[in-house]
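Kindly inspect this one:
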Amino acid sequence: MLGVSLRSLLSHKLRLALTTIAVILGVSFVAGTFILTDTINATFTGIFNTADAGVAVTVHDLSHLKAPRRRRSGRWRRCCWSRWAAASR
């Protein structure tokens, strides 16, 4: 069985070489992608950590915490507006 496999590999040298190159390139690209992703994450983490150095308090807008307004028809608004205006006189 081993002899048949070795004989097949030696008879198809170009196929063996191209398959080896394809596997090496594939592994290299995947490893390079992981390294690039880790480098980018480390860089941005460092940037954001140094950007907030020396800051004791940060102020944020609270508009995202309010309940969203429901859209009502124009007729209902005019009706309620006229009632409010009449009641406030």
